[in-house]
């Protein structure tokens, strides 16, 4: 069944509020905090094909209890100190008259094709078989490079030439 929670949060919401069968529900997991931006993009894309007045609720949660490491490897203990639980939600609409804000741009920077990026936060077993997240010493540099690339992408969309 994998590591995901069954039923998914999306299914729990649909069941709790007895949503209609034509409601589209998407569950994205295993992406960490980047799932929020990915979910926002999915919701926006669904609304682009929806009729006027359609709405999309995007709920993003971060549950660090899934990476509860009990071993002694320092690199694998660090995620518990850095990452915490949290949640956010946003209601998107195709109706501009009922909206407070306008979503104009979503910029995602995908860098996982580079090995140093791909391996900077990696789930694996330690020397005694305890599962955890291993953070590479490259993490700060990788995060800085990715943020720089992302800011350049956003800047070209919102700043004057």
Automatic annotation (TrEMBL):
GO cellular component, one term: membrane
Gene3D superfamilies named in the record: 3.40.47.10
GO molecular function: acyltransferase activity, transferring groups other than amino-acyl groups
GO biological process: fatty acid biosynthetic process
Keywords, in A-Z order: Acyltransferase, Transferase
Record InterPro entries: 3-ktacl-CoA_syn, FAE1_typ3_polyketide_synth, Thiolase-like
UniProt-listed Pfam families: FAE1_CUT1_RppA
Keyword Glycoprotein: no
Name this polypeptide is given: Uncharacterized protein
Lineage: Eukaryota, Viridiplantae, Streptophyta, Embryophyta, Tracheophyta
């Amino acid at each position: 069944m994998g590591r995901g929670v069954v039923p998914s949060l999306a299914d729990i919401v649909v069941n709790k509020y007895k949503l209609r069968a034509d409601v589209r529900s998407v569950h994205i997991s295993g992406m960490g905090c980047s799932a929020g931006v990915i979910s926002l993009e999915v919701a926006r894309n669904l609304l682009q094909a929806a009729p006027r007045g359609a709405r999309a609720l995007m709920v993003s949660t971060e549950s660090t209890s899934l990476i509860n490491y009990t071993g002694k490897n320092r690199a694998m203990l660090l995620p518990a100190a850095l990452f915490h639980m949290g949640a956010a939600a946003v209601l998107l609409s195709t109706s501009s008259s009922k909206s407070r804000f306008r979503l104009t741009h979503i910029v995602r920077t995908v860098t996982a094709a580079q090995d140093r990026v791909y391996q900077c936060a990696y789930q694996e077993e330690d020397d005694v078989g305890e599962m955890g997240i291993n953070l590479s010493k490259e993490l700060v540099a990788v995060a800085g490079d990715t943020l720089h690339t992302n800011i350049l992408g956003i800047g070209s969309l919102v700043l004057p030439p």
